[in-house]
Amino acid sequence: MKFGHFSDTAREYVITTPRTPLPWINYLGSEAFFSLVSHTAGGYSFYKDAKLRRITRYRYNNVPADSNGRYYYIKDGDTVWNPGWQPTQTELDSYECRHGLGYSIITGKKNSLTAKLELFVPVGDNCEIDRLVLTNESDAPKSFTVFSYLEFCLWNAVDDSTNFQRNFSTGEVEVEGSTIYHKTEYRERRNHYALFTVNTPIDGFDTSRDAFLGAWRSNANPEVVENGRCTNSVAHGWAPVGVHQVNVTLQPGKSRSLIFVLGYIENPEDEKWAAPGVINKTRAQAMAARYATDAQVDAALARLHDHWNNLLSTYSVKSSDEKLDRMVNTWNQYQCMVTFNMSRSASYYESGTGRGMGFRDSCQDLLGFVHLIPARARERILDIAATQFPDGSAYHQYQPLTKKGNMDIGSGFNDDPLWLIAAVYAYLGETGDYSILDEPVDFDNDHSLAQPLLEHLRRSFGYLRTHKGPHGLPLIGRADWNDCLNLNCFSKEPGESFQTTGPSEGPVAESVFIAGMYVKYGNQFAEILDSTGHTDEAAAVRAEVAEMEHTVLTAGWDGKWFRRAYDAFGHVIGGEECEEGKIFIEPQGMCVMAGIGVDTGEAVTALQSVKDKLDTKYGIVLLQPAYTKYHLELGEISSYPPGYKENAGIFCHNNPWVSCAETVVGHGDRAFEIYKKTCPAYIEDISEIHRTEPYVYSQMVAGRDAATFGEAKNSWLTGTAAWTFVDVSQYILGIQPTLAGLKIDPCIPHEMDGFTLRRVWRGATYEIVVENPDHLEKGVKAMTVDGKPVSGNILSPVPAGSTVEVKVVMG
């Protein structure tokens, strides 16, 4: 069942009913100011950091769902309605929401009045623009009243939602003309404020939520709207809101636009204000003036469209499969940019109040956007590396505003250091900018400890080299990629009285998954060392990698698949001897991607075991059999009911690892089959089952052991976006940046005749035509560059600005 459709020419998803299974959202902004907007105009805004600079309030787990946002009420006679249906839920004569690249357009119609709400964050500015265009489609004049509404957050979203005894006395606003200034805590404590303005004289305002809603009412039936007039309330403490009243009269067939601006202003540190609580409004007035006319808004929208069209022109494909094309060319890359901006910090499932930017998360996200914004990828790498400790371990998370490590979470996730190598290799392969390796980077944000980035990579690899367990496999620490597999939590044997301990007490649990990473990214580190003249060190790294590969094929091999781990007592996790959790997905994908067992047969055997034991119609589950009882020695993983999250859910993040692994062994049909099972465009028809947005990836889908098999959760902010783009762009379509050059090695389904692809790499444009006349899955028989035959399948860099014509014949 569908609730809308794709518009490929406009690069939009068009939602045709407000009654979607869940709120279907979009992200506005790509620099510092961000807004989340749902298809009914719900959501919230913040500047840089969703925890520390939250501008508008949002209530998670609210009933009815998604009932706070930026709302525009229209009182037309006795009828009160909203263009996006919420929060009044008045039945509309027609409804449509178009989510596009950095903008959303919500259009509602009621009683011959059409209201079109355009929402976007302009490039280069710290504000959200909401343009409301009202059109009288009747044959008689219409007089009605528009009320804007949003609720301000008192900046720190955690404190705002918990410290009521204080916050109920701190809300402070000021109204001047058509502008409402939210200046809570401006006196002495802060040098920033928010504004909410409209480009026309207003007929009233309210800034007190109680005054606007009325006693014991909700935003579904505000008293002010029902009465048809504002009270001109000024909030003192309690809950400040922004409400404008605009009375409108339209002749038949005529339209009027109202332009609302929600902005954030931060004054320079050295700028002094006249007195406590008195704000300098110069910048706010200039911001409002930049968007005072339709022509200015149209120009800002045009710049936004140009911004996204330029970004997405870096990589595009044309094939016989329109769903593949729409995901590669638009929605997958768009989601990669959102995960770059957000990591896992702010969505409809991540409250934005805790996690911030993840070390491993941000390193993996970089794999999906480095080709789009290499300069910002460089900056992100340096930010991430600065949260590393001198021994090579790292803070697991950091706050985007301060860029400091999150001490509440700390470190100890032993896969983190290797992801930094993966990110740097991807950047070097994309740009050839080796100067980044010489950049001095702090350890633990301490300038006195700064070392070149290459030294950070050396310590990343060194940390795992010096942290191995009894079997010679890497120690897992608190956890590896699977945060819920906590194997060092207890110091007693199962069956005895368990004593919870910290991961530093007897941390001998080992990870086969990290061992696969050690091989894959250890080889990449050796390539980096070779490329920078450290050949002896590169040889030593390769020797370490070879030893680990041998260890994986002995201690890590279970006969038909790769084991997952050894717990703190030396017991196998993910082996035939286990009653539950016999096989896990993660090591099968990572170890084969690393090339382990490819030449000796274990790789193909492991992937067949995945197909036989883990595959379902909605994707590959994380483990089988699911844990049906709680295992104290395994930590959090078995605390979930069977089929959900890490306990045998379909983790969309690691499905691409298996798809990538299938291309390593030449299985294009199987790789594409896996790709399609979790790809939104291919499962749009089951939106009533899937529930989350049909244009972006979700973190997980309920597995076959779950009561809601096929139901997705946690959409938008997931490593699925980056890893799926790596899978489809580098492994399936096979255009892979390396340190040696641009490698062309497609592995596609045999029925595909071929494809054409445009790829900008190191400033040059490669127009690539792939032909598959014999309908094979993998292999390059011949390649020409600008009409001349070349040997091999790796293209050397050419001068920036060049256009290179490449023809590839599979065989």
From TrEMBL:
Source organism: Gemmiger formicilis
Domain Glycosyl hydrolase 94 supersandwich: 11-292
Coiled coil: none
Record PANTHER family: CELLOBIONIC ACID PHOSPHORYLASE, CELLOBIONIC ACID PHOSPHORYLASE-RELATED
Alphabetized InterPro entries for the sequence: 6-hairpin_glycosidase_sf, 6hp_glycosidase-like_sf, Gal_mutarotase_sf_dom, GH65_N, GH94_catalytic, GH94_Enzymes, GH94N_CBP, Glyco_hydrolase_94_b-supersand
Keyword annotations from UniProtKB, A to Z: Glycosyltransferase, Transferase
KW Transmembrane (keyword) present: no
GO MF annotations, alphabetized: carbohydrate binding; glycosyltransferase activity
Name assigned to this protein: Cellobiose phosphorylase
Lineage top rank: taxon: Bacteria
Listed GO biological process terms: carbohydrate metabolic process
Residue span, Glycosyl hydrolase 94 catalytic domain: 307-734
Record bears the keyword Transferase: yes
